[in-house]
Amino acid sequence: MPFSTTVRGLCALSYLLLPTFTRTSALPTANSHDIVFEDGPWPHGPPGGHGGQCTRENAIVRREWDDMTRDSRLAFIAAVKCMKSKPSRYPKGVVPAAISLYDDLTTTHINGSFVIHFSGIFLSWHRRFVHIFEEQLYECGYPRNLGTPYWDWTRTPDIDKVAMFDGSDESLGGNGDWDPTAQAIALGKNGYLPRGTGGGCVTKGPFANETIRFGPFPGSVLAQGFLPEDWKELKERCFTRDLNPIVATNSLNSTFTTQLLAANNISQIQVLLTPPNFGLDFLGLHRAGHCAIGDPMSDFFASPQDVVFYLHHAGVDRMWTTWQDMDPATRRYAYNGTSTIFNPVGVTPEVDNSTIFDFGILAPPMTLKEGANPMSGMYCYRYE
Ligand SMILES: *[C@@H]1O[C@H](CO)[C@@H](O)[C@H](O)[C@H]1NC(C)=O
Ligand SMILES: *[C@@H]1O[C@H](CO)[C@@H](O)[C@H](O)[C@H]1NC(C)=O
Ligand SMILES: *[C@@H]1O[C@H](CO)[C@@H](O)[C@H](O)[C@H]1NC(C)=O
Ligand SMILES: *[C@@H]1O[C@H](CO)[C@@H](O)[C@H](O)[C@H]1NC(C)=O
Ligand SMILES: *[C@@H]1O[C@H](CO)[C@@H](O)[C@H](O)[C@H]1NC(C)=O
Ligand SMILES: *[C@@H]1O[C@H](CO)[C@@H](O)[C@H](O)[C@H]1NC(C)=O
Ligand SMILES: [Cu+2]
Asked: Nearest 5°: phi and psi at 222?
């Protein structure tokens, strides 16, 4: 494979690689363990947060980071730190890199990568994943009427200068320190996106000087179609960011949110969020959000190590929810694709209401139908 292993992550996903990615058999499941807990199951938060009937009045409200009060932001930061201080639920030795409960979510995302991306379950899986995160925030004392904050990308063209990343005590932490050796973002044979304005360790704000433990995964892992043997091993390095105002300005503006919400089918929504054939000029809102933050957010597998992941995916879910709500009769239960990355024909069936997807140790499996409505079943939240 003529592919530099220094090129990494989601942003590195090259259409150069895609034609070679033709699968004729089911992907190997990435390490099947029968994981047995000695001290009970994963601690679940309460379902929904409503007593049976979900209404506009009793729904959890997810707000944009900038619209939250200082107290709410501090409560969110404290709850995330609490998740990072609780021990992993994996039995000792099963996932050496998973030290904390927070890492357990990252583990599950990495493990599912070849099923949950560029597939018919992408939106539903990430919706529930953010919800599992939210349940754990509540277990950590976050107020139950507040939802996971979301990131409205259109507010942050100058991403390295906004309050969200200014390094203050009520921010999500600062940019990475300037690292002159940080690399441009490779998008395949047609070129590179410019690097961001940080690249080094995050040394300011609530998550300063933290350690991350998974990855970096080179882009070649995506092409090979299975995780490296040692993906669960502890690989400590500092938590970095490389905030990228060029990506934010050119790929995360209202032209693209307007275009997305004007889509007339779910296939189009998925393609506009993460175009499978992409070039430098059209990243898609989902991919661009990852690219605009830099490693590890730009890592296709290990991105949840930056907490911005959850705000970004709440932002993606807000787009999907808004689009669904415009025409619930035709859009609520609309799906497109299979349960396999890039939807190859004949590997897994086209998804429908009854398609099941799973969350490893985090939560029971569920169906697409169960995950289709943020205001019913296990869900009861809305965006404001
Ligand atoms: C990874 O996913 C497979 C298939 O769902 C599951 O059997 C296995 O336990 C998971 N591994 C980890 C470490 O969560
Ligand atoms: C993080 O580490 C850097 C370099 O060692 C240090 O200057 C900085 O004060 C630390 N920040 C915090 C918040 O501890
Ligand atoms: C969004 O960025 C594109 C460039 O990618 C530009 O053509 C467009 O005018 C921008 N839209 C807004 C509203 O700034
Ligand atoms: C979805 O919309 C796109 C763009 O309008 C169109 O090309 C495609 O054929 C549509 N797909 C379905 C399944 O209707
Ligand atoms: C999914 O979308 C693609 C592209 O729009 C379309 O060709 C295909 O027929 C759709 N599949 C189903 C089952 O609707
Ligand atoms: C999916 O389930 C919903 C809710 O029960 C139903 O209205 C819809 O018709 C189902 N879709 C299909 C294709 O069966
Ligand atoms: Cu993901």
From this structure: -65, -40
3 in a structural domain: no
Q: Is residue 1 part of a domain?
A: no
> Does the CA dihedral 370-150-170-9 come out positive or negative?
positive
Q: Which ligand is the nearest neighbour of the Cα of 239?
A: 2
Q: Number of structural domains, the chain? A: 1
Query: Ligand 4 centroid vs 383 CA: distance in angstroms?
Result: 27
Q: Is residue 337 assigned to a domain?
A: yes
- Ligand 4 pocket test: which of 259, 260, 267, 352 has the largest number of ligand atoms within 8 Å of its C-beta? 267
Choice from 90, 101, 111 to test ligand 1 binding pocket (greatest atom count within 8 A of CB): 111
267 lines ligand 5 (CB under 6 A): yes
What pLDDT digit, counting tens, does each position of 149-160 carry? 999 999 999 999
Tell me which of 56-65, 180-189, 299-308, 314-323 is least confident. 180-189
Dist. CA 129 → ligand 6 center (Å)? 23
Q: What is the CATH number of the domain that holds 97?
A: 1.10.1280.10
Domain carrying residue 173: 9-383
Give me the phi and psi of 211, to 5 degrees please.
-105, 140
Query: Within a domain: residue 127?
Result: yes
Nearest ligand 6 atom to the CA of 333 is 1
- In angstroms, what CA-CA distances link 98 with 12, 47, 103, 213? 25, 25, 5, 8
The overall pTM is greater than 0.85: yes
